[in-house]
Amino acid sequence: ISFLLIDMKSKGVTVRPIIMLDGGHEVNEVFFENVKVPVENLVFEENKGWTVAKYLLGHERMNTGRIGVSKRELAKLKEFVGKQMKDGKSLIDDVRFRDKLSKVEIELMALEMTNLRLLAVPHGGGPGWEISMLKVRGTEILQEISELQLDVAGAEAIEAASDDAARGAGAAAAARYLNLRKLSIFGGSNEIQRNIIAQQIMGG
């Protein structure tokens, strides 16, 4: 396997959109049919493409922890909860829901501290198995927050609007929940990340 840089305008390259569960278009599938690439577009050494790919994926997974995004969405969730009522009281006063909210907030704080510790420790040849751990927990926490947002929205989540800007908070929560299902897959599925962790730690 060799790593090549390809001009997407090259003859034989076909790009087709993949529509997400929320109806949005963020990613594509790409087909290569007899595409010719100049030899000078080779990155690193011939037959060392997977080495390059693993290095790049390690840095990509550092970003897929999405701690900043999770903190922002958690703040939105708290604001949303404060406006929702249950049995004449604010939903934030519901003990069971407050427990769920506290749990995910504590887990996010722990993940952020872990991320900061990893940033402070140099990794000679690039990111190690710890990045897979960040990817798994980071994506799971963001999905958990989106699930809580959906719980808070309740029946409002079935609202529909063609204009995203006109959507109510409930419909936006539903769209976000559907969109974030992708996190378990891209950058290497969470199942693969668990395999990497197990192999690196236990030598499996």
Topology at a glance:
Layout: E1 3-4, E2 13-19, E3 25-32, E4 42-43, H1 49-63, H2 67-83, E5 85-86, E6 89-90, H3 95-120, H4 129-153, H5 169-179, H6 190-202
Antiparallel strand pairs: 1-4, 2-3, 5-6
Write up this protein.
- By secondary structure, the chain is mainly alpha-helical.
- It has six helices and six strands, in the order E-E-E-E-H-H-E-E-H-H-H-H.
- It has helices spanning 49-63, 67-83, 95-120, 129-153, 169-179, 190-202, and strands at 3-4, 13-19, 25-32, 42-43, 85-86, 89-90.
- The strands form three sheets. Strands 1-4 form a two-stranded antiparallel sheet.
- A hairpin with a 5-residue loop joins strand 2 and strand 3.
- The longest helix is centred in the middle third of the chain and has 26 residues, at 95-120.
- The radius of gyration is 21 Å and the shape is flat.
- The two termini are 24 Å apart.
Q: Which features would summarize this protein structure in a list?
A:
204 residues; two-stranded antiparallel ribbon; mainly alpha; 6 helices
Low-confidence stretches: none
Global Rg: 21 Å
Give me the secondary-structure category.
mainly alpha
Q: How is the largest sheet built, in terms of strand order?
A: 1-4
Report the count of strand segments.
Answer: 6
Helix content: 40-55%
Average of per-residue pLDDT values: 85
Please report the number of helical segments: 6
- β-strand amount: 5-15%
Global geometry:
flat
- Note the run of SSEs as H and E: EEEEHHEEHHHH
**Largest beta-sheet details:** 2 strands, antiparallel
- Gap from first CA to last CA: 24 Å
